[in-house]
Amino acid sequence: MVSPFKRWMCAGETKEALGVSKGSATLIALRESHGGYTLVEISLVLALLGFLLLATGPILSRWHGQLSLESAARQVQVDLLSARDKAVLEQRTVAVAFTMNSPQYRITYSDDERTNDWRSLPGGVVIQSTSFNLSSLYYRNTFIFTTDGKSGMPTMGGTVMLRGMNGRCRYVIVSRNGRVRIDSMPPPSSEVPS
């Protein structure tokens, strides 16, 4: 193996001409004699990496919880928008029923109520509450899109409240016209039960 020192030395130049002292030349020669890292160097690097991981662990955990909550809110939003589009395109009512304190909800079609598309939320996120049809026994916590893509039941729209492992919440808000959006605060006009 050619030493880095010899590789950069031009023809005819000496170590003294390059300003390399006898001590640094000894270090170069010492490094050339054994090509690798010592156990102490490897242990020190591993200890530093372990300390960094230990210090950043809680931050990464919070970040993962927030990411799961955002992902779950997007999933519910996309499923509600998809249900609305399916109601308009196929000219049939589509219901999205939410199960409280559970990560699951289902999508049901009016002409075939035996067909249920069950969906699960990611990463420890649960459905905390909804403001859909609270007074109805059969349609409680269910949002129904009519064939024109608007809110069938409840007629005024409503909110789904999702809670993550970190205790934070996201609100998926459906307007009476079928618009679906996500917010970190509940809408002022909705009645979201605690």
From TrEMBL:
One GO cellular component, as annotated: plasma membrane
InterPro entries assigned: N_methyl_site, Pilin-like, T2SS_GspH
Name this protein carries in UniProt: Prepilin-type N-terminal cleavage/methylation domain-containing protein
Keyword Cell inner membrane applies: yes
Keywords, comma-separated and alphabetical: Cell inner membrane, Cell membrane, Membrane, Methylation, Transmembrane, Transmembrane helix
Claim: Cell inner membrane is one of the keywords in the record: yes
GO biological process: protein secretion by the type II secretion system
Topological relation to the membrane, as annotated: Single-pass membrane protein
Domain General secretion pathway GspH: 72-178
